[in-house]
Amino acid sequence: MFFRRRFQSPDPPPGSEANFDLQRERMVQIQLTGRNITDPRVIAAMGSVPRHRFVPIALRESAYEDRPLDIGHRQTISQPYMVALMTQLLRLRPEDRVLEVGAGSGYQAAVLASIAQSVVSIERIESIANTAAAVLRDLEYLNVEVQVGDGTLGWCDGAPYDAIVVTAGSPSVPSALKAQLADGGRLVCPVGPREMQQLVRITREGTDLREEVGIGCVFVPLIGDAGWSE
Ligand code: SAH
Question: Which parts of the chain register pLDDT below 70?
Fold first, then answer.
């Protein structure tokens, strides 16, 4: 019997765009579809947004690992799975207008903007907001607007929103955010003590707010009027 020897082509060189594409493909397969991420829009968005462009250059090789990464100012870009899960919980549709509280690196905003019509993302630290806005502009995510401010108060200009996501841990869901949620809108927020939270989803049905509690998580604190003090 003859066996044909099969040669596997080697991975593209580290640091090349082709190598990042491959790492991203593996991230989607292993960390997302291998778990419970099933929304095709979320899978497509996570497969298209170049996460390595949203992390400090020194950490690019780690961008697709299964963990959060430091982005300076004691803040982090969330783990890919957490970004995908929160986006999936929002049940986004292409016509949705979205508010994000905690722009950070701008990565989650890019994922949201790949699915929804428009995204307003608020960040309290100005230099972080500027970096995020510059990357989003470079990558031509033209439907994202980054604003500097206290996101616990929401952003009145674009309200009401079909979806609101808070990407920092809060003692409770800020009431201004509930007020800025459109009828049928979904809000996802990590809620709990400073060191550890649970994902909470609120769905507005007219004047009713339906609340569901999801998995445990660890986020940096939401600091502001309706969040933690510094
Ligand atoms: N979504 C981000 C991760 C955010 S980390 C990403 O994809 O990279 C949480 C961010 O929330 C930090 O940048 C922090 O400065 C910001 N933040 C904390 N409290 C805030 C508030 N009240 N308003 C706006 N941003 C806030």
Answer: 1-7
Per the structure, how many domains does the chain have? 1
Q: Is 105 among the residues known to form the active site? A: no
Calpha distance 90→69 (Å, rounded): 23
Residue 41 lies in a domain: no
CATH number at residue 144: 3.40.50.150
- Take residue 137 and report the two structure tokens written for it: 């502009």
Please tell me the distance from the alpha carbon of residue 210 to that of residue 192, in angstroms, as a whole number: 18
Q: Which residue of the set 16, 78, 118, 229 is catalytic?
A: 78
**pLDDT confidence of residue 89:** 98
- Residue 121: domain span: 68-217
Q: Which residue's alpha carbon is at the smallest distance from atom 24 of ligand 1? A: 123
pTM: 0.96
In a domain, 37, yes or no: no
